[in-house]
Design a protein that fits this description.
about 170 residues; alpha+beta; single chain; 5 strands; 5 helices
Length: about 170
């Protein structure tokens, strides 16, 4: 191999390296600006926030007025729109009823999925199955499996629940 051949092979290797870097940079730029990636991130955020907020809304410590007050504050923080307004307007009555019952409930979302997401409008629909462990003041504790459909709205504090509907067992929807 003479000097000229070595020089040409060096240039060819450098050109190949530059092309690989250029293709890699272009590919990275395409992925970063990809609308699909942004949509996936929005979907994941809505799903995570929806799961967390639903677990809050299905949990309550009714052992004392103070713990009920804390629970209702958590409910308000998890909700927005009409649901938030309704919870706020019934707070005094709810505090009395929940304190009197003395029951404790712990909701755990066991499965959830988004059935709709509109990034522009800032809305989403979540369906979920929740196991709610209920411990009454007197009586036997048990776990109830519930299904919900939640309408979510994007707020400055993430996605919050604006409407919550129970789905009867055995229904098709």
């Amino acid at each position: 191999m003479n000097a000229r051949t070595r020089s040409l092979s060096g240039w060819a290797a450098m050109l190949a390296a530059v092309l690989v870097c250029a293709v890699g940079g272009w590919s990275y730029a395409q992925a970063r600006g990809d609308g699909t990636l942004a949509y996936a991130k929005a979907r994941d955020a809505a799903l995570a926030d929806g799961r967390s907020r639903l677990a809050r809304l299905t949990s309550m410590d009714g052992t004392s007025a103070g713990s009920v007050g804390t629970g209702l504050t958590a409910w308000l923080a998890a909700s927005t729109g009409p649901l938030h307004d309704r919870l706020e307007s019934t707070r005094k009555k709810d505090t009395a009823e929940l304190t009197e019952s003395g029951a404790t409930a712990r909701g755990k979302v066991t499965a959830a999925a988004l059935t709709a997401l509109d990034e522009r409008a800032g809305t989403a629909t979540l369906i979920a199955t929740v196991d709610v462990a209920v411990t009454p003041r007197a009586g036997k504790a048990g776990t109830e499996r519930k299904r919900f459909e939640a309408s979510l709205a994007r707020t400055g504090d993430g996605w919050k629940i604006k409407a919550l509907d129970a789905i009867p067992a055995g229904s098709g929807g």
